[in-house]
Amino acid sequence: MNAVGKMLVVLQLCLSLLFVCFAGAVYSLQGRWRDDAEKAQAQIRQLQNDMDSAREEHQRALDEAVRLREEAEEERDSLREQLASAEERAATAEALNADLRQERDKAIAENILAADEAQARRTEAVDLRRENASLTATLAEHLEIIRRRENELIENAQKLRSYETAEQRHLEEIARLTEILRSRNIDPNTRVTGDVRLSAEKVDGRVIDRLQNSARTREFVRITIGANDGVEKDMILTVYRKDQYICDVRVIEVEADSAAAIVLEKTRRSYVQRGDYVTTQL
């Protein structure tokens, strides 16, 4: 192959490459144009839909305007009727005002006559007021006397109620002491003879522990009062819970701030529990 043939081959190859590039560019432009056309059609459809919506909105606004105009015309007719009715009422009120003015003039004349009569009645009222003031003063004196008597009656009634309450408390205390004496096998009607030992000062405590011997024949308790509180050995104490009498206990061991005691079975009314109260005197 000579040089001319080679040049023709190279030229043909270049033209082929150029044609391929041109075909690729045309294909690329065709795809972009197709996308632009589809977008334009979509925008046209959107605009068409917007135009249809705008037409419907315009039609609705037009219908609403027509309805409002009809309502306004109906309201205008109603207001005209109300105005005509108001004018008729105003004419009627004017006629009534004329009648009222006549009646007012007549009432003024009657008031003048009544004022003259009232002056005469006022004079009589002054005299009656003075007499009434005198009677009121007398009545106030009598009321004050009655009030003092009522206060005295109230005070006497209060005193009587307090005496009755005190008597009731004393009777309850006697009944309670009688019950305690009977629980200790003491006849409350028996007269006490001989020397009577003075009772110790009242001391209160609580049960902090309880236990029994192995045979469960004796019950022991430990209490929160001791020698510092005046508790002595062989002293008899009373155990109670609220208003319930439980039993008596005898002190068998005394410490400074506590003591141990044994339950006297013959006085037992119930079983001792932790937290029960104990006292030297009920």
Structural descriptors:
282 residues, alpha+beta, Thrombin, subunit H, six-stranded antiparallel beta barrel, 1 helix, 6 strands
Tell me what the structure shows:
By secondary structure, this protein is α+β, with helices and mostly antiparallel strands. It has a domain at 202-279: Thrombin, subunit H. 64% of the residues lie in helices and 14% in strands. The protein is built from one helix and six strands, in the order H-E-E-E-E-E-E. A six-stranded antiparallel beta barrel has the order 1-2-5-4-3-6. The longest helix has 181 residues, at 3-183. The model is unreliable at 193-199 (pLDDT under 50).
Give the % helix: 55-70%
> What is the CATH level 1 assignment of the domain at 202-279?
Mainly Beta
Order of H and E elements = HEEEEEE
Form type = flat
What does the average pLDDT come to? 82
What's the architecture of the domain at 202-279, going by CATH? Beta Barrel
Backbone structural class: alpha+beta
List the helices and strands and how they pair.
Layout: H1 3-183, E1 204-212, E2 219-223, E3 236-241, E4 244-254, E5 259-263, E6 277-279
Antiparallel strand pairs: 1-2, 1-6, 2-5, 3-4, 3-6, 4-5
Brief write-up:
By secondary structure, the protein is of the alpha+beta class. It contains 1 helix and 6 strands.
